[in-house]
Amino acid sequence: MPSLKDKRLEAMLATLAACRRVCVLTHYNPDPDSISSAWALQRILVVRTKARAEVVYGGIIGRAENQLMVHRLGIELIHYNLIARSDFDAFALVDTQPGTGNNPLPEGIVPHIVIDHHPEEPATAAAAYQDVRPGIGAAATMLYEYAVAAGIRIDAMLATALFYGIKSETHNLGRGVTRADVDAYVDLVPRVRKDIISSIEHAPLTTAYFVMLDRAIKGTTIHGPLVLSVLGNVDNPDMVSECADLMLRLEHVNYAMAMGRFNGDLCVSFRTSDPAVEAGEVLKAVVGRDGTAGGHSEMAGGMVEGHGKAALGATRAACRELGQRLIKRLRIRDGAEGVPLLKSPDTTPSQQVIRALLRNGTTDARTG
Ligand SMILES: [Mn+2]
To answer: Which of 166, 312, 324, 366 is the most buried (most CB within 10 A)?
Structure first.
């Protein structure tokens, strides 16, 4: 009797029976989960169908880690601007869905395939094949299952890509994982090139990165349990999400939102460690009709278009407005003003603890 995984695979492949060339779309600025998932689907389609398949993205691969991942693993991605959409007779979406505004699926095109782990979007129902499982920690886990069911060879490079996709998406299995994620991770470990993972995780950073980081820190204010970062213009949109990730690590902080302008769009990232708050829903409400947003329970991203010609002052005002909406939404009292990150007291509790330990001679001062 065919397993559920085999049935899923056969149902997916059946939708492409008459297709010649498939466009596998990631989200705009693809992260490791999206890149590895698309790459795995491309491999499956090349082996198991008569169609050719390309991995296509619409934005920019910004993070140093992601650029190095693509380079070291030899993943071929094509920018959407370089393809002719008439060359393709089928579209497949991974780690994203139609109608989310975070992928370059052309208006009016109904995708053949949607495989995703974000909450289901209404437009997805029209796809010939959908597999949307919001409980799963990483899309790469789903594509690993398809790859196994398809019987394709998962070589060291593909294994490393999928492993890194799961690892980075789930913070090393520490965030929103299911049994399937753990199984895929464990299965992949023996085949992974650990040296490549290590080099990706310690990718060289440009001086431009530190300039941007400096600006991000200077543009950050603390509003009780919330941190807001206004970055101004950024040279890559991933900087916005990196900043939100970093600021959530500030002690006593449960929410972080970062905003920056890239290519005429205002990019927004929201992170939370509060299990009572659904990040995707909160950001959708905050952005409202101004733009698009979506995400998971702990992380979300959004975009407000039309900031290309706006003066930076107007964009900053829009950021302040989004910040105020978030403060209201999270019901943070006395949060409207905020304190600049660099003006907040320099003696935080953790520093006091370290000093006390040093005074008592219980901390080895030679380390660290
Ligand atoms: Mn994902």
So the answer is: 166
